[in-house]
Structure formats: C-alpha cells, structure tokens
Amino acid sequence: MTLDEIRPYVVILNEGSGFFFQPMDINATYILTAKHVIQNAGNAIHLLKRFTESVGGLISEDLEYTMQPGINYFEHPERDVAILKIDRLQGLSQVIRTDDVTVDRESYILAGYPQMRRDIENDPNYHNAYRTDEGITIQGPRNNSLREARIPDRPGLDEVRGHSGGGLGKFDDGFFLLAGIQSQMIGAMDEQLGKIEFSPMSSFDSLVALYPEQLTSLDPAHLGCFSFIQDATFLLRVNLFNEENIAYTRNFLKAETEKIINSGTAPHHIRRYFNKRLLLDQANPNVLNGRNIWIAWLEFLTIVNIMEYTDVEEADLKQLFNSFRLLYSDTKDDWTVEVQKMIQADYHGLPSGGVVVIGTNSSPLDGLYEIEAKRIPNLLRVTNKKLMQTDNGINFPFDHYRFVHLDSFKKKCITDKIAEYSNIFDEQELIIKLQGEYEQYITRNQN
Question: Is 409 left (phi over 0), alpha (psi -120 to 50) or beta?
Fold first, then answer.
C-alpha cells in the first residue's frame, strides 16, 4: 500500500474528516470519526463525500446517508468518538487496526481534509483538499482516553483544523495500520504547535461495547470466518508441465478447507484462546490482525483434519495446541533467521516429543524444511536461557521438539512426489495417500 492509496479510505465529513473501516460485519462498512465533527454541525450530517479510483484518476462521490441515532449513527457519551454505519462497500480491505502505539511510536501519518485546503469557489468537489502529514510521533496518554502525537514542523491550529476525524496510522507489509482518529489540537496555547490529540482504537471498542446488537468488533472480516481467505490456501505452485498432475490434489485440499469453515472455528476464536502465544515474535501483535497467519492456520487445520481422520473443531484447539504447535512469523526472510525466536517462543503445555510447525511468509531456502538440534550453534544454547518459556524438564526446545516448516507438508509430501499424484482422481484414494504421506513425514526421525 502506498501513500496515494490511503485517500479512498478518507471521507469529507461536515467541516472535518472520517475514515472507512471494514469491521467483522460483512454487511456493513463503518466511518470512524470524532464526535465533535457531528455535534459542531448541529448534530447533523451536511456533507459526506468520498473519492474513488477510476481510469482517469479519482472521482468524487456524495454518499447517501440519513442519520438515525442508535441505528446507523453511534456516539460515545464521554469520549470524542462516533461511528457512522453504512451498507458494505467493496474493497477497502487494506486497513487493519493497531493497538501497539506504546511501543511502536515513530513514522505515523495523518490523513484528512483540513479546512485551509478547502476552496469551494475554485475546487467545489474538494479534489485538492486532501492532505497527509507524515513523520508523526506518538507521545503519552492524555485525559479522556486520548493520546498525544506530534506533527513535524509545528503546524498551528489553522493548518490542522478540519483534520478532526482523520485517520492516524502507518504502513506495514502492504497494510495501513490504523492507530486512531484525530480529535483536536493540544489545548494549551503556549505549546499547541504541532501537538495533537487522537482517540486510539480502544475508544472505538468502548463505543462498540455500548451497542452489542448494532455494532460488531473492529476487526477485519477474515477474522470472523476462514472463508475470506480460502482461495489463498494450498496454492501448490508448479511449472506449467506439471500443472495437470497437481490440479486434482490442489482442488481437493481447497475443498477440504470447507470442513474447517463449516465447523464454526474462526480466526477470532483461535486468537482469543492463545493470543500472542501464536507468534514467534510476541512483540509484534499486529500480525494477529493480518491475513497470512490465518491462511497458515487454515492450511494447518486442514492438514491435521486429514491426518487425524476426524474433523478438528473449536473444542479441540487446546488439545491440538499441546501436541502440534503452529507458531507464526511474518518475516519475509528465510525461516532460519528466526532460530533465536524459536528458542524463546512459548512452549508451555507442549510435552517432550511434540511437533512445532513454523509458518512464515516465504518458503525455506536450500531445501531446509526441518531444523534439527545438531544444527543449532552452541552459543545459542547458553545465551538468554532465562528467556526460554518451557515447562519443567525441558531445558532446550530443539532437544525435545521436532521443528518443521509448514510448507514441508506441501513440498515434501506432495510436490516432491508429484508423479505419484498424477493418476489419482478418486477422493478416497487421495485421502489415503495424503494420510500416509503426512503420517510418515511426522513420525520419522523424531528427536
């Protein structure tokens, strides 16, 4: 995602701004804004405009909206936040929330339609009214659940007015991480320049909690159901000449993901149960809101379904986590660079002899789909032992667990043996073949 691609997410709302957010509700799109943007307009919506991309550039569009408090408009009684609820808009899926502002404080962006950019006479459609302020730094907490941020070059009130309701966030791995919505300038005039206050996403969570029947969690739809990422599973990429040899197996595995989807198990259930324990790098919780970790989980659960001869359901998750543990990293580097994090990951509840499956954003280099204990440098065995998270009796994870990459179940068990699959066109025969390959791979050479 680029700076230019943020604009379709930002709306002109009265004398301020608003920001599109796709919640878990697949039938609705939310516009997050500052409550005072509505109140200062006589508790009404006089102007609601967005820009959409077309071949010739951006075009303005007036959004039809009749304000109905408690039905499609919701405001917090104490905090400066409000949500406008409209019918679901297509796309707009590259924004996810971040709550990590206490640790990750640098390089934020504020996007909105400040007043000084609005020129009704010469620019009636507001094409030139949009502005992004870059290089913003998150500061400390303020009263009324607000947080402080600092804009470089110390802009004054006249330059920021109209940004209220605009989105504050940053880029990460193709997404815009929305940290909150701009509220106002700092009140003390002698230090006002460049200092703003914004409402973090937790303030909108508080608003959602007041309307549990009308509003849903401010999480992306793919956290609500695995069906949103089904098409991204089991790609099984091969060359053109092998395509017809793998097509049936690929289509079968994609169809098998339906069993997980229909079981009712969803990403938000798994996240609720295990949270940061799912991650190799627990200092980066934003990964839990992305897509790639849940693509890995859908593949993993489907593989386990086939291996175990039974359907894996929500009630089985804890037991599964204590026998096969999937840990995920969003690194695009080779998985071997994550060895230190593997040593320090959370293994509580996983008995000796268990299998640790590592998922990453890229396939292993040099054909190394398993990391054996003998490969671990002695230096790593003695450094930071106090940071290890293991149960009594387990001194070093690589001495007690088998570490395999998630892609090994596709590479070692399928594509490396593609000739053995080329003439299988019967579902039951394929199930037996996959079960045998998975079982043989998992049980061999246990540490």
Answer: alpha
CATH number of this structure's domain 3-214: 2.40.10.120
User: CA angle 406-410-413, nearest 5°?
Assistant: 110
pLDDT in tens, 55-74: 878 899 999 999 999 999 99
Angle between helical axes of 243-262 and 427-443 (0-180°, round to 10) = 80
- The CA-based dihedral angle spanning residues 103, 277, 279, 136, taken in that order and rounded to the nearest 10 degrees: -20
Chain centroid to Cα 150, Å, comes to 26
Sequence length of the chain is 447
- The Cα 170–Cα 98 span in angstroms is 9
Q: Which residues in the chain are classed under CATH 2.40.10.120?
A: 3-214
> Exposed/middle/buried for 293, CB within 10 Å: 0-12, 13-18, 19+?
buried
Mean pLDDT of the chain: 91
For residue 100, the Cα-to-chain-centroid distance in whole angstroms is 13
Task: For residue 89, give both structure tokens.
Answer: 């808009």
Averaged pLDDT, 18-37 = 96
Measured in Å, how far apart are the chain's first and last C-alpha atoms?
A: 43
Say if CB 280 and CB 345 are below 8 A apart: yes
Token look-up 């049936």 returns: 248
CB-based contacts of 37, cutoff 8 Å, min separation 6:
13, 14, 15, 16, 17, 18, 82, 164, 165
Rounded Cα gap, residues 348 and 322, in angstroms: 8
